[in-house]
Amino acid sequence: MNRGLPRHLPGTKNMHTRTRNTFIATIVLAVVAVAAYWYWSPFLALKQMQSAVRAQDADAFNRHVDYPRLRDSVKSQMAARMAAELEKSGQAGGSLWRARIAARRRHGRQAGRRAGAA
Q1: Could you give the C-alpha distances from 4 to 8, 9, 10, in angstroms and in order?
Q2: Which residues, in sequence order, are CB contacts of 54 under 8 Å at separation 6+?
Q3: What helix, strand, coil percent values describe the chain, rounded to 5?
Q4: Quick one: DSSP state of residue 4?
């Protein structure tokens, strides 16, 4: 038995517990804040776009739109729809369109990887 100093000075155990609880609460609050921002950010962007349209501010609207990506997305959707319609109607060329769409998608993924690596 150690009859010298006590293992914990009076009141220090509560101080450590309070500090730990404060730290955990801070971490939980930070995680909740990041999750809330992640969830609400698309809605905030749409609201800002809506405000830009009402104010007829094209520059403010354009800051929220990635036109090259939008253009590529619309192209691939239209090509897929055309290929589906061609296949449904039984006309030749539907499989050719499908192959072209697949090649375009592969090319887009590779370009994205190269841009991410740079």
Answers
A1: 12, 12, 14
A2: none
A3: 80, 0, 20
A4: S
Say how far apart CA 52 and CA 60 lie, in whole Å.
Answer: 6
How many angstroms separate the CA atoms of 87 and 77, rounded?
A: 15
Which residue type sits at 42? P
Give the whole-angstrom CA distance, residue 81 versus residue 76: 9
Cβ neighbours, 10 Å, residue 41: 10
Q: In this predicted structure, what is the pLDDT of residue 76? A: 87
pLDDT at 104 over 90: no
Buried b (16+ CB within 10 A) or exposed e, 70-106: eeeeeeeeebeeebeebeeeeeeebeebbeebeeeee
List the domain boundaries for the chain.
13-62, 67-117
Residue 60, Cβ neighbours under 10 Å: how many? 14
Please state whether the predicted TM-score (pTM) of the whole model is above 0.85: no
